[in-house]
Amino acid sequence: MTASREAFEARLRQIGADRYHDRHPFHKLLHGGGCTPDQVRAWVINRYYYQHTIPMKDAAFMSRVEDPELRRIWRSRIEDHDGTAENEGGIRRWLRLAEAVGLDPDYVASRRGVLPATRFACDAYLRFVRERPLLEAVAASLTELFAPKIHAERIEGLLANYAFADDAALSYFRKRLTEAPKDVAFGLAWVLDHADSAEKQDAAAAALEFKTDVLWAQLDALHHAYVTPAEIPPGAWQPDEGLLAGRAA
Amino acid sequence: MTASREAFEARLRQIGADRYHDRHPFHKLLHGGGCTPDQVRAWVINRYYYQHTIPMKDAAFMSRVEDPELRRIWRSRIEDHDGTAENEGGIRRWLRLAEAVGLDPDYVASRRGVLPATRFACDAYLRFVRERPLLEAVAASLTELFAPKIHAERIEGLLANYAFADDAALSYFRKRLTEAPKDVAFGLAWVLDHADSAEKQDAAAAALEFKTDVLWAQLDALHHAYVTPAEIPPGAWQPDEGLLAGRAA
């Protein structure tokens, strides 16, 4: 039976409450100040790959949208990440965070040393958006519903606990506090409008669950490789690589 | 053997001289004033499908580009077609041409009545850009090298020969006179830089030939359906459909 708009929205929000990666031990370790500098660096390196994937994912979405108006609205997501004449964009802001934690931004941008599991998860998301119905692609983006809370926690936790953290280093998260709600308000309304059958509601919910898996799997991989028991897989970042000159490993 | 940059550019330009659709009988008929109003309308309806495809094709390209800088440069093509706050965009300008020739722009935007061969050709281009190496995708865009001439001929020929033609109706072509050279200067340099082996030069030349086929096939289909012998396939636009109120069929 097709759920009411309100009940379906509540179902989507419950997925975030149950599965969003703010519940992952690595997130708690990070914003609670329990990460070593190298663990923070490993997170910055791997999370860059996700940032790198997002505008490609959004372009893949646009390449399947036949309505110019929807493309125009969606385009702002790419602008937020890649930048415009007025806005340096999320990718450059992430590289400033990399620099702040002592990493060479060129090393980070090269995406060498990224964990294979990070690549697999992010590439799976790109492929999902390329191949699945538009409704599922939009539904997968709705993890942004839960993002402002995690960004606020990161800002607060990183500022409180790590010497590198200042406004410039954390500008990525601060900017997302205003960008993400704008995007997700549109995306949520679109999904509520278009999921007009029980089958579509199930498919949209499954897509959002899939996306929480994409995020969770990245933190699992980080935790396994760099926290406990630290078991860095072949080819992944080693704590003496990619540092800015003069920074201790 | 790898050709010199100059020789390779000459090879690409020769493809235009031999195969670009300014050599097609339908183009000559159109800009020479030999088309009936219905034949002009059939062209406007079918060519809209190509316009409709182009920003999706450009988004498909961006979805495969890993370099944020290249994505930023390419994004302006989507802006040119879909529009920005300051620029209504090529798709809306094409719909103004549709209105000027007496067609209901909503009918044209619906893409009903488009010839199957038009769809197949344009969809093949989208798929090509989705699947082929980036070099071939960029090379395919280089038909823009030959576009200013055909746009100028269209402006001149349409103004001289058709009552509907005025500056507002033809604004699409006038705008492309400045947009296309900017894009193609970048695309040509990129292809010349990246086609650094004989194999890649051959692949890029083949991609450009493929694209000339995409354009030529659309005019072949128009010519067969609406000129001589007029043989409109099932489901395609009939000269009494999609007209603005008060316009004779």
Tags for this entry?
homodimer; 11 helices; Heme Oxygenase, Chain A
Account of the protein in words:
With 249 residues, the first copy, chain A, is mainly α. The first copy, chain A, has a single domain, classed as Heme oxygenase-like (Heme Oxygenase, Chain A, Up-down Bundle), CATH 1.20.910. Chain A is 69% helix and 0% strand. Chain A is built from eleven helices and no strands. Chain A has helices spanning 5-19, 25-31, 37-62, 68-82, 90-100, 105-110, 116-131, 134-140, 147-161, 171-194, 198-226. The longest helix of chain A is centred in the last third of the chain and has 29 residues, at 198-226. The radius of gyration of chain A is 18 Å and the shape is globular. The termini of chain A are far apart. The mean pLDDT of chain A is 93. The A-B interface holds A 52, 55-57, 59-66, 68, 71-72, 75, 78-79, 81-83, 89, 91-92, 126, 130 and B 52, 55-57, 59-66, 68, 71-72, 75, 78-79, 81-83, 89, 91-92, 126, 130.
Produce the secondary structure layout:
Two copies of one chain form a homodimer.
Chain A: H1 5-19, H2 25-31, H3 37-62, H4 68-82, H5 90-100, H6 105-110, H7 116-131, H8 134-140, H9 147-161, H10 171-194, H11 198-226
What's a concise summary of this model?
By secondary structure, chain A is mainly alpha-helical. Helix content of chain A is 69%, strand content 0%.
| Proportion of beta-strand residues of chain A | under 5%
Number of domains of chain A: 1
Using the CA coordinates, give the radius of gyration of chain A: 18 Å
Beta strand count of chain A = 0
- Subunit organisation of the chains: homodimer
Q: What ranges of chain A have pLDDT less than 50 throughout 5 or more consecutive residues? A: none
Q: Sheet with the most strands of chain A?
A: none
